[in-house]
UniProtKB/TrEMBL annotation, chains A, B:
Keywords carried by this UniProt record: Isoprene biosynthesis, Magnesium, Metal-binding, Thiamine biosynthesis, Thiamine pyrophosphate, Transferase
Native organism: Enterocloster alcoholdehydrogenati
Needed co-factor(s): Mg(2+)
Presence of the UniProt keyword Magnesium in the record: yes
Record note on quaternary structure: Homodimer.
InterPro entries: Dxylulose-5-P_synthase (IPR005477), THDP-binding (IPR029061), Transketo_C/PFOR_II (IPR009014), Transketolase-like_Pyr-bd (IPR005475), Transketolase_C (IPR033248)
Keyword Transferase: yes
Protein name: 1-deoxy-D-xylulose-5-phosphate synthase
Domain Transketolase-like pyrimidine-binding: start-end pairs: 279-443
Length: 584, 584
């Protein structure tokens, strides 16, 4: 038997069903090698996919997709599913490596039911599919696939509790690879360990305590064992958990050895050496915090499962000791917890990705802002960006902008960022959200903020007639647009760094309107509900014209960042042109 | 011993500690009678407070508040705590019945640590207090009090999982009265039942499976038993659950018999007969749904623990059968689930309070909107209103306004509401959020919407120079302001019902600017990020003036609605005056 002849003949799930057990084993190994080759080049979720090859093969062997419906949590483990459902070339043909999303995407295939990129949603979505089926009188199997890391998220736990109330078919395939992105956090993980060590027979069973039927499969990377386990639960009339034990990163030494690093592989073209030398806000922040911690035992850094990606490296964590806490995937808990820490005398700094902060609107409002506790939240990966629409960071300004009491700052330079951070950590009066810029720009001027100066806009360049307000990361663009106008129109354009995006610097705005006819705002975020619209409303009854530049309200999926910029007129030339047209 | 002499001498926790066991029993009964008298007059959370009298007395007897810190979930059971911590007169002196908030409020007392009114937050907040304590090297006890209803919320479950990681003192007092607001929902409640029936020795223990220490106390309304249980766990060095079994509504026959009704008592002055006769959107909706369900088995009504308050009465639920589902306190799950139901052919209608929809920003965005599934969400109790700041409904327009793909409608009349609902349930292309108006206004014109007309603004009165856009509930106010201007300024003011608050009717706006100099927007919601700011931004570069009327960004706590209206210029006279001043 030739080693590569099985994958070659797989064009859809029916071909998987036609394989013998031996062929399925070979197929799994071929898929694993294809994944390693492809993800090494493109980057992507390496560890989670390598661990879930056999289970995916077994799922498609036993169940009948798309009649039977799979819902993949985060869907960062769905590469094998894509290979088996007509999208093989995205993993085997280098010229098509970028043809498909890294997540399930209904527009790609009838085998994908949801666009998914956030964690902990699969059980609830699958429960909905099951309810829909029951209303129509259908009989298909609904299968939610969820990893152990995702299980700590509130939505998943609400889902477990409610799934148990279905008096009908729902299979929750619990893919336990003993890892979240970083180490798992929380009491449930001790229970999962006990379940693994006892072959599912531990004294207390987490899943049974939620009222679910339960099966344990130790050999989560053996396709034949998985097939017989899945056949046993197929067409079950009860919500049932199948707990399988898999090996994250299986087949790739470095990913198995450092599972945190192996979670997400950088593309081969990525210049790690250059990256390591680059000054980055992640490192600046970690250094700042470690220095603070040395002299102040009440400073504490908080992460929700993404410490490494926000600069809280394993080295940082070792040094910080008890002054670091990872809550796992539990952003809601994190925001409430930092409110409590601040209330009881601590100085918490929560580092979070913009897109995941979306989980916490109510906690930001009720647990934190309403109580005015002095916690700091650092928002990473803000901005319109390109990439997958599930991870877009363009909503945070609007999200935070409608919550009273929170001070939202968007520093533009290294010095402003560090001054904002220092001020925020030491002040006692406000919850503060700082939008961390993406590229470090330094003007060398050491500055310090106090309660008053932190929220004031700064005039970067004083001119007249036209003013451009460039918020945070958008300040360089505002400057470039001003330069373009200076040259072509021959006016001296004012440039302002507004700094605070949650309340307006009315003194400055009143000053500006005296000798400016047009005020433009530029922000790296959605227009609707954003900073610019507050400015437009403030000047609503004044003769001064206002133009807002920012992101249109639209989910941009895999649109190149440059195209999004042009589409939104977020280039210096297009901004200058629009302004020029309105000055006529 | 005189029956009323104990409560008289209680001025703070120290006085509780000075009581004998017999006196504590009398005290508990005196408090219970005071609660019944007071809540019967004022309205409020009756059942939860009556069940938690003895436990609160025992807490203050055993622990040393405010050094030891209590965090009450929802804090709707904190009345006895208020009585014992210097706020007795709010419950014993009729003229002071309205002096204190119905929730814990730090500005009232050093014994309250957080303003709390949403569910499922206590464990995370308390974990934060414990972390803060540990950073400072403190030794106080931290006690979270949480009911069984609140335990199903994602934030509480994230909290449980993380609380277990504390290697220090945290006591979770689990107040199990076998009820949420309505019946509890979910698999965990079967486990709680088993724990109650076995005296805490069931085969699987929900709390132990989260890694927490656990004690069971059956006699949750016996003060002496509770004291000895609390003394056992005081100063524990491990996160520990004390599961107590209490009787919701204890001491009040009607509240014990109908626990759902007894959860929240209406004030004595409330005219139930008039209320029953009133035409209300809750009833209109329930009738609409039942009629739909008769002919269409795929229609399903969804609630998250508040069916009664949104008109999905016990009678409705009995009639709807499988076409109704209560997910308990689990709003995140609800939104993901309705996305799944819609994806698999169902027609879900989720009824939710504005304030609780805040829990679901990310689910609205990722699970629902990104997938464009045709689910309907009906938002009740929207608007600036008065009352407690924790339940304010003024944020929903801004919240939803920044999420792509969702169509948000704000009908103003009975006919528009029913047309919007009919259209939403039957269309297949959009997630739709309908802001349910508060007072039924009928113009008798039967109408129907289609995909195009549903989102179009409607000119209510055609004039010139000045136009007022009154969104949904604010339309009557817009009309009154227009009338006031018609009389005093002598112009014929245009009045517009914008209907859709998530996208702008640009044709209409372009038409308006041709013959209007000033356009005012009026909305019953926060200004920041709201509908009016979108209008101001749209006209930013036009000469037309824009004035936005709505709620300032501020937590209004127990401010009378009329004062809030005046403060925000949300009266016909003040709107007319502002407009007049800007027309000069």
């Amino acid at each position: 038997m030739k080693k590569t002849n099985i994958l070659q003949k797989i064009h859809g799930p029916a071909d998987v069903k036609g394989c013998s057990m031996d062929e399925l084993k070979i197929l799994s190994e071929e898929i694993r090698q294809a994944l390693i080759r492809r993800v090494t080049v493109t980057g992507g979720h390496m560890g989670s996919n390598l661990g879930f090859v056999e289970a995916t093969v077994a799922l498609h062997y036993v169940f009948d997709s798309p009649r039977d419906k799979f819902v993949f949590d985060v869907s960062h483990q769905s590469y094998t599913h894509k290979i088996l459902t007509g999208r093989k070339e995205g993993f085997t043909e280098p010229e098509k490596y970028y043809a498909f999303s890294g997540y399930t995407t209904p527009s790609e295939s009838e085998h994908d039911f949801f666009k998914i990129g956030h964690t902990s949603t699969s059980i609830s979505l699958a429960t909905g599919l099951a309810k829909g089926r029951d209303l129509k009188g259908g009989r298909e199997n609904i299968i939610a696939v969820i990893g152990d890391g995702s299980m700590s998220g509130g939505e998943a736990l609400e889902g477990l509790n409610n799934a148990a109330m279905l008096n009908s078919n729902l299979i929750i395939l619990f893919n336990d690879n003993e890892m979240s992105i970083a180490k798992n956090q929380g009491g449930m993980y001790e229970n999962f360990r006990q379940l693994r060590e006892t072959g599912g027979k531990a004294e207390n069973n987490f899943f049974k305590s939620f009222g679910l039927d339960y099966y344990y499969v130790e050999e989560g990377n053996e396709v034949e064992t998985l097939i017989s386990a899945f056949e046993k639960v197929k067409d079950t009339k009860r919500p049932t958990v199948v707990h399988i034990h898999t090996l994250k990163g299986k087949g790739l030494d470095w990913a198995m050895q450092d599972k945190e690093a192996g979670h997400w592989a950088m593309p081969a073209a990525f210049d790690l050496a250059a990256f390591a030398k680059m000054e980055r806000y992640e490192t600046l922040t970690a250094d700042f915090l470690l220095k603070k911690m040395e002299s102040d035992p009440t400073v504490i850094a908080v992460s929700a499962a993404t410490p490494g990606a926000t600069g809280l490296t394993q080295e940082f964590r070792a040094k910080a000791g008890k002054q670091f806490v990872d809550v796992g995937i539990a952003e809601e808990h994190a925001v409430a917890m930092i409110s409590g820490i601040a209330k009881n005398g601590g100085k918490p700094v929560f580092e979070v990705f913009s897109s995941f902060l979306q989980r916490t609107y109510d906690q930001l409002s009720q647990d934190l802002a309403m109580n005015k506790n002095a916690a700091t939240i650092l928002v990473f990966s803000s901005g319109i960006g390109g990439g997958d629409c599930t991870h877009n960071g363009m909503y945070d300004i609007a999200l935070i902008g409608s919550i009273p009491n929170i001070i939202g700052l968007a520093p533009a330079t290294r010095e402003e960022y560090l001054a904002a951070l220092e001020w925020s950590v030491e002040q006692k009066n406000h919850p503060v959200v700082i939008r961390v810029p993406k590229v470090v720009i330094s003007d060398g001027k050491t500055i310090a903020f106090d309660d008053e100066s932190a929220v004031k806009g700064k005039i970067v360049k004083k001119g007249s007639k036209i003013a451009i307000l460039g918020l945070g990361d958008a300040l360089p663009l505002a400057k470039q647009a001003a330069e373009a106008l200076d040259e072509t129109v021959g006016v001296n354009v004012t440039v302002v760094n507004p700094m605070c995006f949650t309340t307006l610097d009315k003194d400055l705005l009143d000053e500006l309107k005296k000798d400016h006819d047009l005020i433009a705002t530029v922000e790296d975020g959605i227009l609707d509900g954003g900073f610019g619209q507050k400015i437009a409303a403030y000047y609503g009854a004044d003769p001064v014209k206002v133009l807002n530049f920012g992101g249109a309200k639209r989910f941009n999926d895999l649109v190149p960042a440059a195209d999004i910029a042009v589409g939104n007129h977020l280039t210096a030339e297009l901004i200058a042109e629009d302004i020029k047209n309105h000055m006529k």
